[in-house]
Design a protein that fits this description.
single chain, about 350 residues, six-stranded mixed beta sheet, five-stranded antiparallel beta sheet
Length: about 350
């Protein structure tokens, strides 16, 4: 099922939640909508589901007008953050619910429902919990049951709104790996909303980065991480060092110091230099483009994270870097830093 979103606008009073959004989701794709709170990602998901209506624009499923159909006619499975399981029904009946309320003309007989539910519980590896109630399940188990219920009606599209947001970090990691494996098995066109960058980069085929109702960038996880197109994407995905610089006469200046890096096509004027925390090379004092004193060091496995007080224009600017532990940093020492990879964006871009 291919989804095409064209010029979608949605306002809530004076607030514009979506501002002329265009998006195409390929059949069988697992797409992530990634962005901060208020970026419009959940609103877009709900419009695709038919739970919200746009003020302008079109949505089509395989070329057919989806806006001509209500939510119940779009054959969309929806998984919510907080499971939305029926507390008075056991696991089997929760999964069977969508099958039981289908129109009589298409509804399975009891044997067919039992077969379908059993297959789905086996698919999510929870058949042994069929007779338990939601209150007797862990958070991860509840979310898998919610997913099985969404798949029961054999939806053409699967939509997931922050599906792992209510779970602890360890369970989140386990479930997103499980979701990726499940999607490779069922190949349902799927869109999930998240504000967790790691989750989006690990699970999705493509990532749509949103901010303030607009799409900032669409690409593979590698593209949005390694080749961000805007300052927002660079700062939101991954952790970056951001320094104010000025581009003048083809040179990059940080305060009164000219850095030995190319402007890479950046336009003259005030700009921002973005460097991933792990994309700096340690240098002896006086040899790097940047220089500062180590204020604090913490070890994380093969990496040491250090707070560095950069010296610029007689002032100190605090940054964090990640460096290999083969060269141990000590509090108080002065080090030089050279950017290995970086991006420059005009200020305010």
């Amino acid at each position: 099922m291919t989804i095409e979103v064209r010029n979608i606008v949605k306002r809530f009073g004076d607030f514009t939640a979506l501002d002329n959004v265009d998006l195409k989701v390929e059949s069988g794709e697992l797409l992530a909508l990634l962005g901060p709170s208020g970026s419009g990602k959940t609103t877009l998901l709900r419009i695709i589901a038919g739970l919200e209506w746009p003020d302008a624009g079109t949505i089509s499923f395989d070329g057919e007008d989806a806006l001509a159909r209500g939510a119940g006619e779009r054959n969309v499975g929806f998984v919510f953050q907080h499971y939305a399981l029926f507390r008075h029904m056991n696991v089997f009946e929760n999964v069977a619910f969508g099958l039981r309320v289908q129109p009589r003309s298409v509804r399975m007989n009891e044997a067919g429902i039992k077969k379908r539910v059993t297959e789905l519980l086996d698919l999510v590896q929870l058949g042994w919990l069929a007779n338990r109630y939601p209150s007797q399940l862990s958070g991860g188990q509840r979310q898998r049951i919610a997913l099985a219920r969404a798949l029961a009606i054999e939806p053409r599209i699967l939509l997931l709104d922050e599906p792992f947001g209510a779970l602890d970090a360890k369970v989140r990691k386990e479930l997103r790996q499980w979701l990726r494996s499940l999607h490779e098995e069922i190949h349902v066109t799927s869109i999930f909303v998240t504000h967790d960058q790691e989750e989006a980069l690990e699970v999705a085929n493509r990532v749509v980065v949103m901010d303030k109702g607009r799409i900032e960038q669409i690409g593979t996880p590698e593209e949005v991480y390694d080749r961000p197109q805007t300052a927002f994407v660079h700062s939101f995905i991954g952790e970056s060092i951001v320094l104010p610089v000025n581009i003048e006469a083809g040179r990059v200046q940080l305060g009164d110091k000219v850095l030995d890096i190319a402007p890479n096509g950046a336009t003259p004027g005030p700009s921002q230099l973005f460097i991933r925390r792990h994309d700096v090379i340690l240098q002896p004092p006086g040899n790097g483009d940047l220089e500062g004193a180590v204020r604090r060091v913490r070890a994380f496995g093969p990496v040491q994270r250090a707070d560095i007080a950069l010296r610029t224009n007689g002032n100190e600017t605090m940054i964090e870097i990640d460096a290999p532990r083969d060269r141990e940093l000590k509090v108080g020492e002065v080090i030089g830093l050279k950017p290995k990879r970086y991006r420059i964006f005009a200020s305010g871009a």
